[in-house]
Amino acid sequence: MAYELFYWSPIQGRGEFVRLALEDAGADYRDVARIDGDGAVSALMEESSTPPFAPPFIRDEDVIVGQTAAALFYLGPRLGLAPDDERPRLWTHQVQLTIADLVDEAHDVHHPLGIGRYYEDQKDESARRAEEFRSERLPKFLGWMESVLERNPSGPEYLVGTTTTYADLSLFQIVAGLRYAFPERMTALEGAYPNVLALAQRVSERENIAAYLKSERRIAFNTMGIFRHYPELDGSR
Amino acid sequence: MAYELFYWSPIQGRGEFVRLALEDAGADYRDVARIDGDGAVSALMEESSTPPFAPPFIRDEDVIVGQTAAALFYLGPRLGLAPDDERPRLWTHQVQLTIADLVDEAHDVHHPLGIGRYYEDQKDESARRAEEFRSERLPKFLGWMESVLERNPSGPEYLVGTTTTYADLSLFQIVAGLRYAFPERMTALEGAYPNVLALAQRVSERENIAAYLKSERRIAFNTMGIFRHYPELDGSR
């Protein structure tokens, strides 16, 4: 049976990290909300004995796995996108969890006061939070990813080991999202992270990823998702 | 060799979730920063080929595992605090990752504009974020934990299965932290989550946990940690 991905239909959001893994592997999968509607996502959360706190989650027969990084931890070996051994597999997961932390912070830039208010009702606070994100947090996260590549004993081509993992695909998504949301800042910063940028580029050229990015299955970045382009939150510094 | 826990010495913080597991299991462990100083934490991050992004992290011989939930995922089976089978083990991990999300939000209540500014420089914004946390987020997280207990096919005594896991210990820590930080709000809310409260109580009475909580190894909650008691952020609603 096909894997099922449950995530809200109008945005890439956190679901995109799972979608990229499924697409890269050429997996048979159903993007449930885009076929059956968002109600199907809520319904499964209501009835499961292992209820996900929030989408995205996946279903594989009778196994349901929520939390983006945990879903990828589950799918990784099954899709050929994770190392075989426990130790590098857990390291891949740690990288993914750190990427998830960056995603949370990228979201909080436009919602510092919480998700219950519109961005328009917290613009001033967002501008203040964005300063720190651009000047401190973004370089810290990108610098960490660069150091992970530099310190990979097998060389800087992959985050872990000598083959593509779901973490590499997620790194591509991070770079794409940050470039969409903070084009000025990323232009100013990118030169400092050559290995990160090169890996993102290589991922974008992978056959299945390149085909996916050109397809209608790839939702465009927009100002409903996690990475949002608000020019007033961007800047070269 | 003993496990080593690396975390900043003056606070419970995220390190406490790992410490509770080590303490409950009666494991031989070194609390590195409290013995060798915080510099030992930074030093290992600088030199590792699998560098943690931030503490806490653990070292087990030559394995280093960062990200709180991943460290517990690694330690759980070794300490007898995780299920044997893959599926419930991954479910335990999902519960822990959701607890980690709550911890992040509990932190952001007093730092909505980012970690670079003191609380005193973002008090007004904190008060606004705290409203949503108290009225929406806290009930949502506690309600989810209550439903996890209610839906456990083995009964509501444990979050997963029929034995104590590290997630149960973490639930205790969440309840303790929330009661410290938001005493008025927790008093108003607690009646709605009887299974959560009963589990927290049972954990506090476990022999090794009870001894630990009375020991000097248990750092007191304080206003440098994640759960902070600022009366102006609390309230019955």
Automatic annotation (TrEMBL), chains A, B:
Instruction: For this UniProt record, give its keywords in alphabetical order, as a comma-separated list.
Output: Transferase
- Coiled coil located at which positions? none
An example molecular function term from Gene Ontology annotations: glutathione transferase activity
What Pfam families does its record include? GST_C_3
In this protein, which residues make up the domain named GST N-terminal?
2-83
| Every GST C-terminal domain range | 92-233
Under SUPFAM superfamilies, the record lists:
GST C-terminal domain-like, Thioredoxin-like
* Gene3D superfamilies xref list: 1.20.1050.10, Glutaredoxin
A single GO BP term for this record reads: glutathione metabolic process
- PANTHER family, per database record: GLUTATHIONE S-TRANSFERASE
> Under which name does UniProt file this protein?
Glutathione S-transferase
Species source reads Pararhizobium mangrovi
Q: What is the lineage of its organism?
A: Bacteria, Pseudomonadati, Pseudomonadota, Alphaproteobacteria, Hyphomicrobiales
